[in-house]
Structures are given as structure tokens and as C-alpha cells.
């Protein structure tokens, strides 16, 4: 995997809405963060636009993202928020110029669509906090995003969780939101997880549907040949009047119980206030033992 150029003072960062709509005043904290890093925010035409729940219609959202990808002055694209909608425009995006002049794509949740598509092109991306609601994120979550886009080291130590499975691995980190990975199965955006370490997180799902998605990932071979599994926030899950019988964490563990690779739960990333930055496509050293888990990001391969 190739690493886009790290940001430096004075660089321009585009903010676009590829999914759910957002008002300009919801970006104040994110814009302030960019300015505090001596970066220059550039707002896309989708900011403040609306088409039902989307940040403008599909044509506008695709054109806005395309403009940010093609503009050589824009050194990173920070997606304003998630929700739903990125998959509706992904097939309209031309990555020809991006491949020649790569830049960081930043976001999580619905932005898993972009992470997956760009992973298949051979470039790293950043799974991290987005401008909307960033005032609720911890200082450490925001600091790790700065560390990622400026090329500083990223190392994490996580306390032990009862469902952890011990072991060690070194491989490329991929993944994102379970619902999005599930929805991409069978499409040209679906990622190859063989011999990689998979990260998973999700929000606001019924437990039976978590099981349905994990069974589908398993049937598609996405869990069989992993080097490791890192499970982040499984947040605000729901149950039916007839209980499913397992927690979301137990459902995920059940889906991988027959395999032998290391598994870590309760990693601080996903729909959490403490949403630490991850670099997808980067090799990591992953160790799970009785004390907890360690994730060390390796030195990058520069473009």
C-alpha cells in the first residue's frame, strides 16, 4: 500500500458531504481544529445543501467529491459526516487523477465505502473522527487524527476484554463499519481480507441483524483467512421483544470462534467519543495477551 503525502502547515483540506446533509454551523468545531493545525479548510458545495436526508442530490455529491479529488491544491478530503449515501455515488467517481496525485481521505461509518474502494486502488486512508459532533470527541481522539495526517507515530495499548483471544500477528489493517462491509459484498468495492487484520465497528443495529451480517461476511470468506480481528465500538445495539440471547460482542466472537487468530474487543474506535484514528492499508503489529492488546503502526511506504 502507498501512503499519500502527509499534511504540512498551510495545506488545504476539503470538507465534503458524501452522505447525510449537514449545515455550515455544524462544522465550526472541525474548522477550528483545522485552523489550530495551521491547515486551510475549503468547504465543498454540498455543505448546507439538502435533498431529503442527503447533502444534495447524488449528482451534486458526486461532483463535489470529484472536484476535491481532482483539485491538486486540496491535500486531504475530510468527510463531514456519515449516515447513508456514499454508496449511491461511488460508481460515478473517477479516481484516475487521485491515483496520480493521491491525498488522504478521512472519515468513518458510511465512509467505509471510500476506504474500501481506495484500498483496492492501493492507497492508505484514515479512519477517524469527522467534523460533525467533534466537540464531543475526546482530546485524545482528535490528537490521534492529527498524528495520522501529519505522519506522527500511532501506537495503542488496550485493556483486556473477556472475549479476547490471545496471539500475535503482523499484517495490513482493513475494515470499517460492519453494515457497510456487508452491503458491499459482491460488488467491485468489496475488499479482500485474506491475510489481513480486520477492524469492525457498528452503531444502532438490532442484534439479530448483527448476526445476519456476520454470517454473511463469514459465508463470503471474509473471516476465514484473517491474521487477526480488532473489534471497536458496537454501540447502542437493540434487541427484540423475544431476546436474541447474545450480546453484539458475543455474536461477533461466535462468528470467528472456529478460527485461531488473535481477537481484540473494546478497541477505542468507531461510534465512540474516544474514536482513535486508524490508518487502513498500513501494516500493524498486533499482540493480544492476558494484559490486553497492543497495536503498533509500522513505518509507511511513501508514494
Automatic annotation (TrEMBL):
GO function term, MF aspect, one: carboxypeptidase activity
Pfam family, one: Peptidase_S66C
UniProt-annotated catalytic positions: 109 (nucleophile), 201 (charge relay system), 271 (charge relay system)
Coiled coil: none
CDD domains: Peptidase_S66 (cd07025)
UniProt cross-references to InterPro entries, sorted A to Z: Carboxypeptidase_A_C_sf, Class_I_gatase-like, LdcA_N, Peptidase_S66_N, Peptidase_S66C, S66_fam
Keywords attached to this entry: Carboxypeptidase, Hydrolase, Protease, Serine protease
Segments forming domain LD-carboxypeptidase N-terminal: 13-128
Top-rank taxon, per record: Bacteria
Any one GO BP annotation for this protein: proteolysis
Sequence ranges assigned to domain LD-carboxypeptidase C-terminal in this UniProt record: 171-284
Xref: Gene3D superfamilies: Class I glutamine amidotransferase-like, LD-carboxypeptidase A C-terminal domain-like
Family in the record: Belongs to the peptidase S66 family.
PANTHER family registered for this protein in UniProt: MURAMOYLTETRAPEPTIDE CARBOXYPEPTIDASE, MUREIN TETRAPEPTIDE CARBOXYPEPTIDASE
Protein name: LD-carboxypeptidase
Amino acid at each position: 500500500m502507498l501512503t499519500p503525502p502527509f499534511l504540512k502547515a498551510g495545506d488545504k483540506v476539503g470538507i465534503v458531504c458524501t452522505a447525510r446533509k449537514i449545515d455550515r454551523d455544524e462544522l465550526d468545531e472541525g474548522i477550528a481544529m483545522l485552523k489550530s493545525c495551521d491547515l486551510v479548510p475549503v468547504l465543498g458545495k454540498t455543505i448546507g445543501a439538502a435533498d431529503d436526508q442527503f447533502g444534495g442530490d447524488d449528482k451534486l455529491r458526486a461532483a463535489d467529491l470529484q472536484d476535491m479529488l481532482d483539485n491538486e491544491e486540496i491535500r486531504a478530503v475530510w468527510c463531514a459526516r456519515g449516515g447513508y449515501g456514499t454508496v449511491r455515488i461511488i460508481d460515478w467517481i473517477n479516481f484516475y487523477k487521485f491515483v496520480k496525485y493521491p491525498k488522504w481521505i478521512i472519515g468513518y461509518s458510511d465512509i467505509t465505502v471510500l476506504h474500501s474502494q481506495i484500498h483496492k486502488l492501493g492507497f492508505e486512508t484514515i479512519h477517524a473522527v469527522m467534523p460533525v459532533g467533534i466537540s464531543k470527541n475526546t482530546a485524545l481522539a482528535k490528537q490521534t487524527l492529527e498524528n495520522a495526517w501529519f505522519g506522527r507515530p500511532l501506537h495503542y495499548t488496550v485493556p483486556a476484554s473477556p472475549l479476547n483471544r490471545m496471539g500475535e500477528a503482523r499484517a495490513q489493517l482493513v475494515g470499517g463499519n460492519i453494515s457497510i462491509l456487508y452491503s458491499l459484498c459482491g460488488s467491485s468495492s468489496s475488499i479482500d481480507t485474506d491475510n489481513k487484520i480486520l477492524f469492525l465497528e457498528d452503531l444502532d443495529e438490532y442484534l439479530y441483524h448483527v448476526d445476519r451480517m456476520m454470517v454473511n461476511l463469514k459465508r463470503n470468506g471474509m473471516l476465514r483467512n484473517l491474521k487477526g480481528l480488532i473489534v471497536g465500538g458496537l454501540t447502542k445495539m437493540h434487541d427484540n421483544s423475544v431476546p436474541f440471547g447474545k450480546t453484539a460482542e458475543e455474536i461477533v466472537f461466535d462468528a470467528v470462534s472456529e478460527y485461531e487468530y488473535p481477537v481484540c474487543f473494546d478497541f477505542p474506535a468507531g461510534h465512540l467519543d474516544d474514536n482513535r484514528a486508524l490508518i487502513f492499508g498500513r501494516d500493524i503489529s498486533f499482540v493480544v495477551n492476558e494484559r490486553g492488546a497492543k497495536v503498533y503502526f509500522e513505518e509507511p511506504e511513501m508514494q
